[in-house]
Design a protein that fits this description.
mainly alpha
Length: about 70
């Protein structure tokens, strides 16, 4: 007779962080609160859109001394 060994499930398992779909969070942030989160390096953007994001960043937050990378 084969007895299946039950795997031990740690009581802390339910407290572990679940993976988050970041695009879904960004999308709901835009839909619910009109907050747009976009990276200048997002491959879905074409050159003109990336340049617009870069210039908007410079206008709102000023130039950065570390080559465009924020902390």
């Amino acid at each position: 007779m084969k007895i299946h060994k039950q795997s031990y499930r740690c009581p802390l398992d339910r407290l572990l962080a679940q993976s988050t779909d970041l695009d879904a969070v960004k999308q709901s942030g835009w839909r619910d609160q009109r907050i747009l989160v976009v990276s200048e390096t997002d491959e879905r953007l074409d050159f003109v859109e990336r340049e617009f994001v870069r210039r908007l960043d410079q206008r709102l937050y000023g130039s950065t001394s570390n080559g465009g990378q924020h902390d």
